[in-house]
# Entry
Amino acid sequence: MKQRKIPLRKCTGCQEMKNKKELIRIVRGEEGTFSFDPTGKKAGRGAYICANADCLAKAQKSKGLERSFKSPVPKDVYESLMKELLTGVESIGERNE
# Structure
């Protein structure tokens, strides 16, 4: 039996290729709003990041999300994503198992 290909994505923070299910998708919707996409199916441009605050901080410093979304990301968006990441990391970890 042929083994299925595991989809890989690059973290915008640490720049490592990882299994798509290990990463969190951040989406910029049509209205320009940014949010986490736990299902991986929301409409809009997506970027992937590891489920830790360090990678989000690295992405902010290196402007990784700006490159992925091809538009500026306001500082308050990073703050709200960080808050959401820190409060929701337990449920995100459960989703991956």
Observations:
- The mean pLDDT is 85.
